[in-house]
Amino acid sequence: MNSDEIKALDQQYVMQTYRRNPLAIDHGKGAVLWSPEGKEYIDFTSGIGVCSLGCANEAWANAIYQQAMKVGHISNLFYTEPYAKLASKLVPAAGMKAAFFGNSGAEANEGMIKTARKWSFEKYGEGRATIITLRNSFHGRTITTLKATGQDHFHEYFFPFTEGFRYAQANDLASLEAASGDDVCAVMMELVQGEGGVNPLEKDYVQSVAKLCAEKDWLLLIDEVQTGVGRTGSLFAYQQFGVEPDVATFAKGIAGGLPFGGFLVGEKCRTVLRAGDHGSTFGGNPIAAAAGCVVLDTILADGFLEKVQEKGQYLRERIAAMESPYVTGIRGMGLMLGVGVQGMKHSELKDKLLEAGLLALTAGKDTLRLLPPLTITREELDRGLAIMEKVMK
């Protein structure tokens, strides 16, 4: 099918819930993608941080094929090897105690919220279920995670929303303390606010929040849906902030392109959820878990995460050196970068880059968001940067 035929089918049969770019993708290799007509693009999006190993990674594809030829699904009523192996790799590397596997970031955050509230209920009883989240955060699109999201425009249309959330300003401990109360059980935050504009939290602030949680016996909940699995240059971003969360979520890059997510718990929450408390029919799916094992083996190999940090620094330096009138600054961690945009809408700049052959994302009100595959090569980076420099100047 050509691009026009694909778009026609979308218009006729698919609910129009996405503002899709005017581009159909047919295939890819590494960080290079092609349209059905053969036009080539450099990918600085990796499927919104999902395709951590890029496109057509042979080890990843072979693991999927081999597992699909054994058993594709059997449910969590039975044991299978892939999810058990994945947990044995992920949990120790994250410094946590146990994992729960689901399908998506929103589902992972729902599970984290349930864990926190059950932990508090069992220890303190009713009336202590409020979770403080941060302004400008984003935690998902279910009814509960929409309410957990600290952006007012998400709190529309779908009433009634789940109760039990209050909001504080990021990097403002006084604001967090003002939002506290006897009804609070946890603080939930992204260490780099992705959808909100790629805004990293300050390390001192995060450590102060962790200390406050310990003093008040609140749980520290870290949403690593976008920042986790190597994206920021460490397995999880919290490992660079010097804190130990009670619960941390993950999704996006964990299975390299297949739907997969979940959360990790520390000792305090190790046994909170018991049989029947939580579940997921597709959680820990053998094919997705087999893919996840390849992803983890790749990013935990010696020197890989250091290279992610080096690539991120290279991107920052090259973009800063462009001296573009449209760039106000660069922020982020590892290969999760935000470029501040002035003089035109960030969506307009993203469209111009697309026309020139580079895929990028937007975030917040004025940010171009870059999430290249973690395996992107220097040659692919340079090709994408050349396009960016031409457009931005």
SSE topology:
Elements: H1 3-13, E1 27-29, E2 32-34, E3 40-43, H2 46-49, H3 58-68, H4 81-94, E4 98-102, H5 105-124, E5 130-134, H6 143-148, E6 165-168, H7 173-178, E7 184-189, E8 192-193, E9 199-200, H8 203-216, E10 219-223, E11 247-250, E12 261-265, H9 286-299, H10 304-321, E13 327-333, E14 336-341, H11 346-356, E15 358-359, E16 361-363, E17 367-370, H12 378-392
Parallel strand pairs: 3-15, 5-6, 5-7, 7-10, 10-11
Antiparallel strand pairs: 1-2, 2-3, 4-12, 8-9, 11-12, 13-14, 14-17, 16-17
Q: Would you mind describing this structure in some detail?
A:
There is one protein chain. The protein has helices spanning 3-13, 46-49, 58-68, 81-94, 105-124, 143-148, 173-178, 203-216, 286-299, 304-321, 346-356, 378-392; strands at residues 27-29, 32-34, 40-43, 98-102, 130-134, 165-168, 184-189, 192-193, 199-200, 219-223, 247-250, 261-265, 327-333, 336-341, 358-359, 361-363, 367-370. A hairpin with a 2-residue loop joins strand 13 (327-333) and strand 14 (336-341). The chain is built from 12 helices and 17 strands. The mean pLDDT is 98. Helix 4 packs parallel to helix 9. Strands 4-12-11-10-7-5-6 form a 7-stranded mixed sheet, sandwiched between helices. It is globular. Helices cover 37% and strands 18% of the residues. The protein is an alpha/beta fold and 393 residues long.
